[in-house]
């Protein structure tokens, strides 16, 4: 009769959070009864079970076979754990496990309560193994910490020390294909866990997408799953130098795995899309796919340098599409706010291109993932090394068409507001007059009232579905109580005419400002919203600063720049939140450069770019941002630009700026320096808000200047023709 296979105890380790999935996986490999501990499963099984886990587990970290355990009698508080490990190692004949000709290494793990110098304790455990060999066979094995033939995993505990043979050798997440790395990669077994948890194998999608592919881990793990390729098929293991290794059994398992893979290759593969904004990542992905043995699959994979703003049409309608990605959170992007903008931008792309399709997205903070528009979102928390990550998965909600608020606004019925009848009538009349234009030109942000009546000295602006109301501070000759009462009447009329509630109306008081005081922080409420202008999604802040991040009177100029920017190198001086640069970038500019003294506004600028799927996070940036005085920046550089926009403040005495800037006094030298950076056939647009401004005669003599103020003032500012003045400036002879 054939004897039953010998049963042994095995430990299978994994990253925290993977225990349930790993238990399901090894159950499918024939292991039925399992004890579960944090980061570890323990079972009794055959060597065949252990070998199959080594070959097939996509989730495990290590497969360990305990071979020697020692109970510790704690007789005093001060314990010399290092000496305990030495004595425990000495008490076992290691020549029964591997030969003296083999190299070995110790990997020490200590329970949390154990206080010990791990380096010294590892050394003493190694000494115990070596001395055991000397006693048994008179020879000692060599140490190799980088590529040992035998790895002994030692767990030092409170009451027991365990010595295990590491059958896996190196960690099982190292499949052997990752030859080329990018920043912040996800481990292979975690990538596989995400794919398995979100049902990749069951879905068998027609389209597989990773729009921020890094070094290609998700692409390769998906290929392995869909082609039934065992992750251990082409790597070496720690049991090869073990004296109990059953070579014949292992070769049978390996042959079966190879046959399964060959059979699965007969099935059609999805169309794969692997994108990244970093060319180095694109190269790494291609090279790693080849290293993984999937060179023949490259015909199914489009690997291209693309940003989120540059997605192709996946033609996913009536097909099953699956997107998974590891966005550049944390060290790959930096600012938490920029991270949020990245996820908001990604969500918008998903809704536009992949509605009703399955996605899985990694985030370093669960709040980032919260902005993703998903039906029935599921969240999984895992540890990528020491870094916790959150995986948000679900089906993408279809995008809703965002209409200008005025398109949905209707004339409201309300009781007359005594003392504000004229204001209510004027505001209603303005809304009616602007409605047709706002609908036709898809204008979402506009001014609907600007101190039209002397008794109601307000500016009322629409930002998406919200109102921004600025009260111009009354003169000191006006009784404050009377002014406050009049303002409250105005607010009541605004709510009645618009039909908007208090939570949609944001109020500020605006006194006449000088210098950079209009940029000073007024609040810490941080009510930030996304609004639409042309192709651009823009972050506005309706609470913290007097200005919101979007100068509405320059809308027509920004849209003009968007139309003219394609293929051009664009420079934006005094860029503020760089909305003009954003329009240029979305219009196809070859590059954009934004210069402003304020790091606060340049960070805001980067968020705007990231929100729109444009990359700002690597060295050879297409879009650059400089925190500098514009005069100094122009003087120090030599780059040439095809299109320049300058909208300086009327006056500035910033602490970062030596001296003061006065637009009337200093625009001559500013423009001459800027024109030195303009290509011979280029165009410079110059504007400012100083009501008494006159363009210097010397500038008009040196360059071809055309005032275009009327062309840059939209219908919503026609009531205030002095809101700004603007010129188109070119070199003569063009």
TrEMBL record:
CDD domains: AdoMet_MTases, THUMP_AdoMetMT. GO terms for molecular function: 23S rRNA (guanine(2445)-N(2))-methyltransferase activity; RNA binding; rRNA (guanine-N7-)-methyltransferase activity. It is found in: Cytoplasm. Pfam families: Methyltrans_SAM, RlmL_1st, THUMP, UPF0020. Keywords: Cytoplasm, Methyltransferase, RNA-binding, rRNA processing, S-adenosyl-L-methionine, Transferase. It catalyses: guanosine(2069) in 23S rRNA + S-adenosyl-L-methionine = N(2)-methylguanosine(2069) in 23S rRNA + S-adenosyl-L-homocysteine + H(+); guanosine(2445) in 23S rRNA + S-adenosyl-L-methionine = N(2)-methylguanosine(2445) in 23S rRNA + S-adenosyl-L-homocysteine + H(+). Residues 49-167 form the THUMP domain. The keyword Transferase applies. PROSITE patterns: N6_MTASE, THUMP, UPF0020. Coiled coil: none annotated. The keyword rRNA processing applies. It comes from the Bacteria. It is an enzyme of class 2 (transferase). Its EC number is 2.1.1.173, 2.1.1.264. InterPro entries: 23SrRNA_methyltr_KL, DNA_methylase_N6_adenine_CS, RlmKL-like_Mtase, RlmKL-like_Mtase_CS, RlmL_1st, SAM-dep_methyl-trfase, SAM-dependent_MTases_sf, THUMP_dom. One of its GO terms (cellular component) is cytoplasm. Belongs to the methyltransferase superfamily. RlmKL family. NCBIfam families: PRK11783.1 (NF008748). Specifically methylates the guanine in position 2445 (m2G2445) and the guanine in position 2069 (m7G2069) of 23S rRNA. This is Ribosomal RNA large subunit methyltransferase K/L.
